[in-house]
Amino acid sequence: MNVLSRKILLAFLAFTIILVIAALFVRDKIAERLAHTAQVSHLMDLNNSRPQQALLLLHQAEDLFQSSLVDGDPAKSKAYQAKLSLAFAEIDTLLNMQHDTAKLNPEQRKQLHAWHDQKIKLSADLLSARHDFDSLLTTSSDLDLATAQNKLAVKSSQKVQNSTDTINQQGKLKRKGFFARIKEAIKNKNAYAGGSGGVVINHRTRIYVDSVTQKLRTKDKSNYLNKLKQLQQSNSKLQETQRQLIALNMRITHKMEQLISTIKDINYSLTDAFKGLAFNSYLETTSLLNKLYLSALLLLLAFAVLLIVFVIKLGQSEDLLLKENERAVMIARQKMDLLLHMSHEIRNPLTSINGFLYIFSRTTLTPKQSEMLGTVRASSDLLLQTLNDTLDAAKMEGSELKIHNDPFCPDKTLKEVIESMAFSADKKQLQLSYDFQGDPEAEVLGDSFRLKQIIVNLVSNAIKYTETGNVKINATLKLTGGKGGLTVNIIDTGAGISQEQQVNLFSKYYQTNSAKGNTGTGLGLYICKQLIELQKGSISVKSDAGKGSTFSFEIPYEKYEID
């Protein structure tokens, strides 16, 4: 039964430990998966926003470029260069961006490497666009230089005079008839037909050139013609440079838009891959949780099955234990009944034998016969004591032992017992002494027979385990106010009892280890303790190995007073 309980306890502890370890493992895995999913989500947001930012920078640079061409503002040209440089830097960052492939499967790693190779190829296109950008900067510098050279002003001294003449003309008016005037009025014509009249304005512009300028013009006419040709050539060169500048800018913008578009496609593909990775992480986390729940459920079911088996086994064991207990009780009762019956059957003849031996001891015997008779009496007394102890133990087990409450004199009772034990002490050449403190004639209410039985057991043990020296019995009777108690100390100079043996000294069937070996039934001290406690007393022992022993007991008595 204890083995089964231990197994169930160990199974429960193992179940708890396994469940805790599994929970900690799953917790760490879930935390790792969630952290990786959050990192992937952050990378997806970052990768999706950066191409848009680069495209915005490119459009802003394009706007600045167009504006700088219109108004020729150098600040806008520098801002255009700065914006385009930022766009180049952003695209370069996107091309050089690395991704964590630790959580990807082999197929995903292969695809990611292909995209990375594609980014490397795009880097070459970016270098080409940057070279075009450098050419654009050179062309822009040439354009500024040509514009500065074309600023040539020709100043001349001339005088312009404008004059205006006004002439009024009037002619004869031909008067028409009445009906003709009505017709002309209807048609909104002049009523005077055939007439003419009006105002004539003559404009005249005269340019007066002074003689100095006239001479300079005549002299430097050929130089001006050369300058004009140079201006035409510079203008043509300027227009060609502008066309090249616009073409380069368009090519750079087109290439960068293609780069950004390709990078966006790659990032979208990466986003899809990492979304799949995040989804796989979610599925793996869910799978771990499901496995944990399933394992916990299986372990719980296994533990429940073990518990059910334990309960069933426990019930069966209890039934078997009850049956075996009843059987053991019945067998013990039968043995005890048989022992009691045999003890009674043996004690009666043994009592008769002791009586005849006492009679023989009163007759005239030779020393040899007296010695032999003493040996027989000692053996008979020992056998009778063993029988009495056995019967008393049986009565105690069956709660049949009763304590009588009769008047007796403690001093007289103790003297009778000690006198009967004197022969055994003399035989071992031990000095047996008795000392009584108190009123020797005082009588108390109690069981004198049980007191004799206690003294016989304790004194006989003292004599048995003492080889040399003496055995002292000191008794003290104290009666105050009609109540008191008897205290008895039995002191011997025997082998003594070790501290380890004193723990179980008053236990049933316990025998101390002595030079004589284990002798007796081991019931004497147990019966003494039980008899003393039945009379509401107490017993104790003080002893050291090799230094003798002192047994002390105290029994409360009431003083007997004759009415």
TrEMBL record:
Top-level taxon: Bacteria
Ranges annotated as spanning the membrane: 292-312
Cited Pfam families: HATPase_c, HisKA
EC number: 2.7.13.3
GO cellular component terms attached to this protein's record: plasma membrane
The entry's keywords: Coiled coil, Kinase, Membrane, Phosphoprotein, Transferase, Transmembrane, Transmembrane helix
Name of this protein: histidine kinase
Gene Ontology MF: a single term: histidine phosphotransfer kinase activity
Main EC class the enzyme belongs to: transferase
The keyword Phosphoprotein appears for this protein: yes
Reaction equation(s) it catalyzes: ATP + protein L-histidine = ADP + protein N-phospho-L-histidine
Domain Histidine kinase: 341-559
Keyword Protein biosynthesis annotated: no
Coiled-coil ranges per UniProt: 221-251
